[in-house]
Structure formats: C-alpha cells, structure tokens
C-alpha cells in the first residue's frame, strides 16, 4: 500500500499556458504540546491524516472561466468530512459526477472510503489571481478508520 500511496504523495506542478497548478501533500500530526504540525508526507502509516492542497495561479492577461479543480482521494484512504476548503466543495464516488456532501444511496450515507474525488466549481479566475483548495484524508487501517 505504501508504494501506491507514495505515487499520490509526490509533489506535482504543471504549467498550462500561463496558468500554474501545484498539488502537494502534508502529513498532519500533533506535537507534544498539542499544536498541529504539517510535515512532508514521506513516511505514512495506517491512521495517519494527510492534507492535500491544490493551488492555481492565473498568470494570463485574461479571465479564465468555468474551472473545475479536483483533488483525488487516493485508494486506501477515507475522506475526512468538512475539511474541504473552500467549504463549497463537491464529492464524487466515480471521479466524474460531483454532488454536495454527503452522497446517499438508498437513504444511507456512502462510506467515507468510497469517495474518489473532491472538487469545486470556479466561475472565473482573474488575471494575477491565485486560489487554494484543501482536503484531508485518513489512511485506512488505523484506529477509527472507515
């Protein structure tokens, strides 16, 4: 599982014309004094929490319209509800169709481990504007994992 997860943990950066995007992941833990720490997600174990951050930077001279940034929820992890930022996020169980959280089937909430992506609808990104999107996931197999 670590090898598969490490593929998703690598820091990625893409330039689309003059639009820069970057996806990074950080392991979240508490220090001895209870403070939240974010460290590079090199070594992870079941039960660990990862924070994914996706950034978009419009270096174009024109407004970019109708963006749909998404962050994958890797296999072997479970979405942590209400950690999506901005809070108007949508979720998907198939990576194509997005709905408000929670998705229900036959009146029951979909298990957190069934979510595959978190996404947002951005009407426009103005020249020079930067946006940041975040979500947290928990590696399955630890205490309290779904």
Can you describe this structure?
The chain has one domain (2-139): Sandwich (Immunoglobulin-like). A hairpin with a 2-residue loop joins β9 (104-105) and β10 (108-109). The strands form four sheets. Strands 1, 2, 3, 4, 7 and 13 form a six-stranded antiparallel β-sheet that branches. Strands 6-11-8 form a three-stranded antiparallel β-sheet, with no helix packed on it. Helices cover 5% and strands 45% of the residues. Mean pLDDT is 87; it is low at 1-13. The two termini are 16 Å apart. The chain contains one helix and 13 strands, in the order αβββββββββββββ. It is globular and about 45 Å long. It has 146 residues and is mainly beta. The chain has one helix at residues 2-9, and strands at residues 12-16, 19-30, 36-40, 49-58, 64-67, 70-72, 77-79, 90-92, 104-105, 108-109, 117-119, 122-125, 130-139.
Which helices and strands appear, and what pairs or packs with what?
Layout: H1 2-9, E1 12-16, E2 19-30, E3 36-40, E4 49-58, E5 64-67, E6 70-72, E7 77-79, E8 90-92, E9 104-105, E10 108-109, E11 117-119, E12 122-125, E13 130-139
Antiparallel strand pairs: 1-2, 2-3, 2-4, 4-13, 5-12, 6-11, 7-13, 8-11, 9-10
Quick overview of this protein structure:
With 146 residues, the chain is mostly beta strands. Helices cover 5% and strands 45% of the residues.
Query: What is the strand tally?
Result: 13
> Could you describe the largest sheet, including whether it forms a barrel?
6 strands, antiparallel
Spatial gap, N to C terminus? 16 Å
| Helix/strand order | HEEEEEEEEEEEEE
Secondary structure category? mainly beta
Which second-level CATH architecture applies?
Sandwich
Shape: globular
Task: Determine and state the CATH class.
Answer: Mainly Beta
Proportion of strand residues: over 45%
Overall helicity: under 10%
Tally of structural domains:
1
The pLDDT mean sits at 87
> How big is the Rg?
16 Å
CATH topology: Immunoglobulin-like
Catalogue the unreliable spans.
Answer: 1-13
